[in-house]
């Protein structure tokens, strides 16, 4: 059953001072590694060490379908969800390529894809499928709750269980689900009190008329679920099975002191829900990029997050998280391996 796990704060003034001292005494002008220095400090704080090393990085891609998709809120049909899951597993999707390139173990979770995906044997290191289906897609949120409270709790518990079974100390988040930019927009509007107009965008590629129709459907969803104001109620009423599973994964990863690498608009929505349940999770998140999807900039503001990259990505899948991964790896290596002025015999500031 779902219970919010205890999440330790990263607060440790002695460690923070030690990390800052190490960073400031590396052989470089003070602050010259810019935001990489911020990342070095944060990863050290999350892992609780002044010699951080990331090991066995896990890419978790949660997939599900959405009743709302039947209302024409996406440029693509729901069938693309299961077809892309097959593509992830076959190694041909963007996230498959990037995970392979960077040695990220790819786990794809069927959290409620409309067409059941067959679980099959995977060679060691190859993408693997975990089946934690709640149902064959959610209900249409424009006419009532997307899922029941029990389904929502089960999806949260599933996300926690998946992470408990994964090795390593860093979790990268990804997702797949036709219609799920609508879910993210609804959660942003409800939980961060952002005007719906600022939350709704093109998703997979709607034109202006399509976006206007999507906005009208999403307003109906907010009206049909007006009483769902708390984070768990909003997640059940407006959410998706993949978003709820990711929310559980975030809570569990934070409780285990893992570094959490957040991808785009939809994974950020899962973090938003998790942060409303347990604000300390944000200390353990690194935001990979600012998505090109309208709404993500507001989402990042609501989370007070500064992402690493801004490349106009709007794919999802965890592709942005995978692209940002080398920066995290570099931050750790620089902290561990770069010489200090003293060790290298280089003159410090002022001689
Ligand atoms: O992560 C993002 O920022 C992002 C922005 C736009 C689209 N997506 C992906 O596109 C799908 C959702 O788009 P849509 O138009 O069907 O709501 C879903 O599979 C997401 O992975 C993802
Ligand atoms: C082809 C395609 C690939 C995706 N990957 C994530 N969301 C997606 C949506 C579409 C439509």
UniProtKB/TrEMBL annotation:
Sample GO molecular function, one term: glycosyltransferase activity
CDD domains per the UniProt record, alphabetical: DMB-PRT_CobT
Positions of the catalytic residues: 317 (proton acceptor)
This protein's UniProt keywords: Cobalamin biosynthesis, Glycosyltransferase, Transferase
The protein's enzyme class: transferase
Gene3D superfamilies in UniProt: 1.10.1610.10, 3.40.50.10210
Annotated InterPro entries: Nict_dMeBzImd_PRibTrfase, Nict_dMeBzImd_PRibTrfase_bact, Nict_dMeBzImd_PRibTrfase_N, Nict_dMeBzImd_PRibTrfase_sf
UniProt superkingdom: Bacteria
E.C. numbers: 2.4.2.21
Pathway it works in: Nucleoside biosynthesis; alpha-ribazole biosynthesis; alpha-ribazole from 5,6-dimethylbenzimidazole: step 1/2
Reactions it catalyzes: 5,6-dimethylbenzimidazole + nicotinate beta-D-ribonucleotide = alpha-ribazole 5'-phosphate + nicotinate + H(+)
SUPFAM superfamilies xrefs: Nicotinate mononucleotide:5,6-dimethylbenzimidazole phosphoribosyltransferase (CobT) (SSF52733)
Ranges in a coiled coil: none
Similarity comment: family membership: Belongs to the CobT family.
Functional summary from the UniProt entry: Catalyzes the synthesis of alpha-ribazole-5'-phosphate from nicotinate mononucleotide (NAMN) and 5,6-dimethylbenzimidazole (DMB).
Protein name: Nicotinate-nucleotide--dimethylbenzimidazole phosphoribosyltransferase
Organism (species): Comamonas faecalis
């Amino acid at each position: 059953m779902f219970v919010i796990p205890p999440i330790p704060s990263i607060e440790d003034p002695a460690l923070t001072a030690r990390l800052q001292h190490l960073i400031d005494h590396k052989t470089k002008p003070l602050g010259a590694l810019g935001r990489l220095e911020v990342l070095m400090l944060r990863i050290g704080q999350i892992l609780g060490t002044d010699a951080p090393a990331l090991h066995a990085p896990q890419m978790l891609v949660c997939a599900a379908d959405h009743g709302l998709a039947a209302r024409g809120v996406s440029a693509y049909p729901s069938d693309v969800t299961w077809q892309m899951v097959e593509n992830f597993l076959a190694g041909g999707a963007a996230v498959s390529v990037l995970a392979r390139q960077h040695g990220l173990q790819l786990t794809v979770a069927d959290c409620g894809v409309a067409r059941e995906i067959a679980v099959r044997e995977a060679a060691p290191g190859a993408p693997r499928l975990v089946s934690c289906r709640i149902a064959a897609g959610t209900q249409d949120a424009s006419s009532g709750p997307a899922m029941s409270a029990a389904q929502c709790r089960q999806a949260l518990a599933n996300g926690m269980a998946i992470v408990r079974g994964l090795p390593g100390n860093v979790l990268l988040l990804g997702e797949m689900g036709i219609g799920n930019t609508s879910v993210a927009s609804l959660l942003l509007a409800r939980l961060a009190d952002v005007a719906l107009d600022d939350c709704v965008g093109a998703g997979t590629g709607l034109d202006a008329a399509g976006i206007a129709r999507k906005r009208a459907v999403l307003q109906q969803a907010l009206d049909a679920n007006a009483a769902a104001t708390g984070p768990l109620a909003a997640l059940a009423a407006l959410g998706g099975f993949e978003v709820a599973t990711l929310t559980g994964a975030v809570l569990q990863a934070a409780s285990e002191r893992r570094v959490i690498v957040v991808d785009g608009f939809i994974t950020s929505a899962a973090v938003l829900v998790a942060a409303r349940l347990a604000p300390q999770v944000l200390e353990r998140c690194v935001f990979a990029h600012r998505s090109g999807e309208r709404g993500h900039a507001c989402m990042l503001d609501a989370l007070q997050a500064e992402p690493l990259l801004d490349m106009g990505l709007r794919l999802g899948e965890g592709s942005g998280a995978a692209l940002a991964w080398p920066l995290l790896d570099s931050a750790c290596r620089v902290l561990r391996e770069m010489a200090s002025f003293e060790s290298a015999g280089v003159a410090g500031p002022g001689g």
